[in-house]
Specification:
12-stranded antiparallel β-barrel, 2 domains, Porin, mainly beta, globular, 13 strands, 246 residues
C-alpha cells in the first residue's frame, strides 16, 4: 500500500469511528487528518573540482559544475530518480564541456537496492553524444554501504564495472566524515580491457541549515593494469560543493 493510500484508509477509519460515537450520543473528539508527504523531492547543487576525473581519466582542470536531481516516490519501495548535470573544465588543455541527462528506477528490497537506468552524455562544444545503460546494486551491512555498477557504453560497444564501498562517521548533529573507495574494470572500454583504476575519497558534509549543505572533499585515483598502459597517470584532486534540498 502506498503512503497516499495508507493515509486515505486511516482517514476513513477515523471518520467511521467518529460517526459511530456520534450516533451513540457520546461527544466526538475532533479528527486530525494527516496530510501525505510529498512524493517529490530533489536537490539543486553546484561546485568546483580542481580536476575533473571520470572513471580514472583526467578530463581537465578547474572545473565548475551544476546539477539538479529529482526523486519521485512511485511506491514505498520504488523510486524514479532523474536529473541533469553540467560541468565545464576550463584548464588542462581540454576545452570540452559536458551535459549528462539521466533517469534511474530503484527498487528497495530490505537492505538491498536494485537500480537500472540510462544516461546520455552530451558534449555541446565538442559535439557528439554517448548513450549508456547501467545497472546498480547496493547493500548495507554494519553501517557500510557496498555497491556494484555495470555500465554498457553503446558508443564503443564496451562495458565498465565497478565495486565500491562507503562509510560515514557522524561528528556532530550537523557534520559528518564520509569515506569511499572502489576499483574499476573495463571490457573493451575505450582501449581498456582489464582493471582500470583504484580510488579513495573523503568528504566532510556540513549541514548549514536543514536544507543547505556545504561539502568539501579530497580524492585520489591510481591508474592500474590496462588503464595505466594507455598512459593515464595517478591523480590527487579536491573541491567543494553546495546543495539545497527541496
Amino acid at each position: 500500500m502506498t503512503i497516499r493510500n495508507s493515509i486515505h484508509a486511516l482517514t476513513l477509519l477515523l471518520s467511521a469511528s467518529a460517526l459511530s460515537s456520534a450516533q451513540a450520543g457520546e461527544p466526538v473528539a475532533p479528527v486530525t487528518v494527516v496530510e501525505p508527504e510529498s512524493i517529490f523531492s530533489g536537490s539543486l547543487a553546484g561546485g568546483y573540482d580542481s580536476t575533473y576525473v571520470f572513471r580514472g581519466v583526467d578530463f581537465g582542470s578547474d572545473a565548475i559544475w551544476t546539477g539538479i536531481d529529482m526523486n519521485l516516490a512511485m511506491t514505498d519501495a520504488l523510486t524514479l530518480n532523474f536529473g541533469a548535470w553540467y560541468i565545464n573544465p576550463t584548464g588542462g588543455g581540454i576545452d570540452n564541456d559536458e551535459l549528462d541527462l539521466y533517469a534511474f528506477l530503484t527498487q528497495s528490497l530490505g537492505d538491498f537496492e536494485v537500480g537500472v537506468g540510462f544516461t546520455e552524455y552530451l558534449f555541446p562544444e565538442g559535439g557528439g553524444d554517448v548513450p549508456e545503460l547501467a545497472l546498480n546494486l547496493g547493500y548495507s551491512i554494519a553501517s557500510i554501504d557496498l555497491g556494484f555498477l555495470y555500465a554498457y557504453d553503446f558508443e564503443v560497444d564496451g562495458s565498465y564495472l565497478e565495486l565500491n564501498a562507503g562509510y560515514a562517521i557522524e561528528l556532530s548533529d550537523r557534520i559528518a566524515l564520509e569515506f569511499g573507495t572502489g576499483i574499476g574494470y573495463g571490457d573493451s572500454y575505450y582501449g581498456v580491457s582489464g582493471f582500470n583504476h583504484v580510488f579513495v575519497t573523503a568528504s566532510l558534509p556540513i549541514a548549514i541549515t536543514e536544507t543547505l549543505t556545504f561539502s568539501p572533499y579530497i580524492s585520489s585515483t591510481w591508474a592500474i593494469d590496462s588503464l595505466e598502459a594507455t598512459g593515464e597517470g595517478d591523480h590527487l584532486y579536491g573541491g567543494a560543493s553546495i546543495s539545497v534540498d527541496f
